[in-house]
């Protein structure tokens, strides 16, 4: 069960997962093995239990990308496709098409979620829905005993004689793990897309890869899920949404953990843990390895504000910063500034970003409705959406008068201002060490192991999907190889070439159709066509 977009939806899931069993590793680690998309199960309801190639490739690649970025995640062992077809309406717009059935082998210590405990929920006061196991506290006790003894054995051992204290310690630990997890997401620009309670892992893993997206141009309000019309799961809202979800888990644990205890834990632990871990990670990304100063948080905020003002590429700008040094001569500084501003959106790209999305007559009607009938307006629109559209119109109008030279000049001014602050902060690092050269070597090493060069951008995934849909899986393998080494230069990288006989003539057609797209570097900011991609 679970809360979807803030409302309790009762039983959830399309019943497309089949457990193969549990494997115990040589060091005692425990792995659950699961097939996703293998066919109908008793929980499929009206669904067919199948998954398709495009979504399976995305899950397969992103699971492995997150693992190699060092972020807790479920894993993907294999991705197997066939010639069997199912009908899917990709964008829910009445245009269905046949797609190839595909099965992903998922691996995790457990797939139990927050929503697993919501099967006990009594009728919801807003939706009227309830869980299928209301009043079955005996099952809740069994589930808690299993989860804690299996995945939190140190907590089980420490509180053998006091169940409430044990449950409180467990809730405190999952609160901290969740806070650290979302801090890791924020630091690589990862947006989950569907942070419903049934998509939150009980052991603090990234789970259920659906309409996710790595942010390209930095926008704190970035929404990766095309069907999240209200922006509930926007990038900047992820920390507070995960905290809200923990609150729903707390409600689901009553009476085995009284709400007054869990709510206090949540308030005392979550924000503090998130802020601590986020700042620790950001210091590493900026190479602040010697000192922890009070102004560091503001330096990070100023950097992100500068990225936002200049529409800078989140991943590439962080990656470039390791080549900045305090004692750069003026010519090298100008070269660095050129590199930095080349990662900011062009006038053409900004026009795509700020292109108005509503028909002017529709916008006019909505504005009048907001004034004359606020109650009706609240049912069909939001003030935030209207304000965003008005902002788009204003920005788009300004862009018509903006030249490329004006934009470059403005961006350079913004980056010079921030780089002076950064230079001053690095100078304090140097003053606190005995050997500046050794410090700088270590600084660059730390930055290059925390700022990825390669992430799974939507356009990269789309190129791989389109080739695979035409029978050529070499691009999926190429991308996987890069994602397994996200922090390294791709020197000596050899593209995987499929045997032409094995893949058939369709592969040739796929390569030809992709030729112009595949020339784009894997670490480039996205091409203009990528802005049209929509993931729901």
Automatic annotation (TrEMBL):
Keyword Metal-binding: yes
Domain of life from the UniProt record: Eukaryota
Cofactor(s) the record lists: Mg(2+)
MF terms in GO: ATP binding; metal ion binding; nucleotidyltransferase activity
Alphabetically ordered keywords of this record: ATP-binding, Magnesium, Metal-binding, Nucleotide-binding, Nucleotidyltransferase, Transferase
Entry similarity comment: Belongs to the SELO family.
The protein's name in its UniProt record: Selenoprotein O
Native source species: Hypocryptadius cinnamomeus
Gene name linked to the record: Selenoo_1
């Amino acid at each position: 069960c679970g809360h979807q977009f803030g409302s309790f939806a009762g039983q959830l899931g399309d019943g497309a997962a089949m457990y193969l069993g549990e494997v115990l590793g040589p060091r005692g680690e425990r792995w659950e093995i699961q097939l996703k998309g293998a066919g109908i199960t008793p929980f499929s309801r009206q669904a067919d239990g199948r998954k398709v190639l495009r979504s399976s490739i995305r899950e397969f690649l992103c699971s492995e990308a997150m693992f190699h970025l060092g972020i807790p995640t479920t894993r993907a062992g294999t991705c197997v496709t066939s010639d069997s077809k199912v009908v899917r309406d990709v964008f829910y717009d009445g245009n269905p098409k046949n797609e190839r059935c595909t099965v992903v082998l998922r691996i995790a210590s457990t797939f139990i979620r927050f929503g697993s405990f919501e099967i006990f929920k009594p009728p919801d006061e807003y939706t009227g829905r309830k869980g299928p196991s209301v009043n079955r506290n005996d099952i809740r006790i069994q589930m808690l005993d299993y989860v804690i003894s299996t995945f939190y054995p140190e907590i089980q051992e420490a509180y053998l004689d006091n169940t409430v204290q044990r449950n409180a310690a467990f809730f405190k630990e999952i609160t901290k793990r969740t806070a650290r997890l979302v801090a890791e997401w924020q630091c690589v620009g990862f947006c989950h897309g569907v942070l419903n309670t049934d998509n939150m892992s009980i052991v603090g893993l990234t789970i259920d890869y659906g309409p996710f997206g790595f942010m390209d141009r930095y926008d704190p309000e970035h929404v990766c899920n095309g069907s999240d019309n209200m922006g509930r799961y926007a990038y900047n809202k992820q920390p507070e949404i995960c905290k809200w979800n923990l609150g729903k888990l707390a409600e689901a644990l009553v009476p085995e953990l009284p709400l007054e205890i869990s709510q206090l834990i949540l308030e005392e632990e979550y924000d503090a843990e998130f802020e601590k871990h986020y700042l620790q990670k950001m210091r590493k990304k900026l190479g602040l390895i010697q000192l922890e100063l009070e102004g560091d948080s503001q330096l990070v905020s100023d950097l992100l504000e500068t990225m936002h003002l200049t529409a800078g590429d989140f991943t590439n700008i962080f990656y470039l910063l390791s080549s900045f040094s305090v004692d750069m001569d003026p010519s090298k500084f100008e070269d660095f500034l050129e590199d930095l501003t080349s990662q900011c959106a062009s006038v053409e790209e900004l026009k795509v970003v700020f292109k108005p999305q509503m028909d002017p007559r529709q916008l006019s009607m909505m504005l009048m409705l907001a004034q004359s009938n606020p109650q009706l307006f609240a049912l069909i629109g939001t003030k935030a959406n209207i304000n965003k559209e008005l902002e788009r119109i204003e920005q788009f109008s300004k862009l018509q008068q903006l030249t490329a030279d004006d934009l470059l000049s403005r961006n350079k001014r913004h980056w010079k201002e921030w780089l002076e602050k950064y230079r001053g902060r690095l100078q304090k690092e140097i003053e606190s060490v005995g050997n500046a050269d050794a410090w700088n070597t270590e600084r660059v090493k730390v930055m290059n192991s925390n700022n990825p060069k390669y992430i799974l951008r939507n356009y990269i995934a789309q190129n791989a999907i389109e080739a695979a849909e035409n029978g050529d899986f070499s691009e999926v393998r190429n991308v996987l190889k890069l994602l397994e080494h996200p922090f390294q230069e791709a020197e000596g990288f050899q593209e995987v070439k499929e045997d032409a006989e094995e893949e058939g003539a369709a592969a040739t057609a796929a390569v030809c159709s992709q030729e112009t797209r595949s020339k784009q570097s894997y670490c480039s900011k996205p091409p203009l066509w990528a802005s049209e991609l929509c993931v729901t």
